[in-house]
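Look over both lines before class:
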Amino acid sequence: MRQRRLPRTAGARQQVPFKRIAASERFVTAGSRAKPQPDAITSLLRASVTKAQADQCIVSGDVNFLTDFLINSIIVGPTTLAMFG
């Protein structure tokens, strides 16, 4: 008796190459030494962290570290999980 296979969707066929491209971009851009440009959103978040620290609403510490942590937690982490499933 032949085993039935579930149909593969177009999304599943496209996801594997997308993951491969996304993972390989890391190696392509590794040699790039472009000077980072100021980011308005990061500057606003940094100012918000500084104000929250002054108001004793969050822990004291390095503002840049806390800003990067928040960006990673809110944007980078969930986006990466969504891309790589």
